[in-house]
């Protein structure tokens, strides 16, 4: 059976669904802005899997929203909930009305940047002698291990796409609070007053070395080095490897897998079986070559 394309998924998305990407969905339901990971049967490719780090990234985002709302005046969306359901992870916040900064004229952007710099100064005033994300908790309220999620300029399909990073207990230093994806598309603005309504997408945030934060808000585009800009990718990777332990994140189990009930999808992939009986799938290794799940030494579904 032919796999559907991302365009086809968007053309036939359900009511309330704003967009379907290759690894997540965005929905607007009532006064809620919801994003969720795709379940395995929604993946558009059986050969390249979405990163398995999204649940941890969104747990970090949720903890950071609560932390900043308590300790600063930085405008952030109000967190409603995060939860797991049948192999998908949900992140829900109150909807923030406005436009993204990258849609403004250059003159209006200069006005917004003046306020944004005040919030950046506030972030730099938040300091810790250890790296990590404050306030991350398990579903029952128990404190969870602090796992850093590397910004996408550092971790991508060709380097540790399914890994988070646990700072070693011996690491001490002067760490500041970073957003690590503070680009214009993550700043929501009131079009009339040009006041910032919310800064969003904090999933790569936390206490990091100060130099991890790059001023990507100064120009439109993604949070990675463009031509002529300093590329600090290797420096950041070296820091993670030197001061953190790599934690390969598993994919969320579906209800069938939790119950041990095998189910076969239209692509011939079988779920709900023990690891030893699962059909091997392929993913992208660090050097860009395809490898089987057995080669990678981790569970790929």
Automatic annotation (TrEMBL):
Residues 282-301 have a biased composition (Polar residues). InterPro entries: AGP_Transferase (IPR051678), Aminoglycoside_PTrfase (IPR002575), Kinase-like_dom_sf (IPR011009). Transmembrane segments: none annotated. It holds the Pfam family APH. It comes from the Eukaryota. Residues 270-301 are annotated as: Disordered. Residues 47-206 form the Aminoglycoside phosphotransferase domain. PANTHER family: AMINOGLYCOSIDE PHOSPHOTRANSFERASE DOMAIN-CONTAINING PROTEIN, AMINOGLYCOSIDE PHOSPHOTRANSFERASE-RELATED-RELATED. This is Aminoglycoside phosphotransferase domain-containing protein.
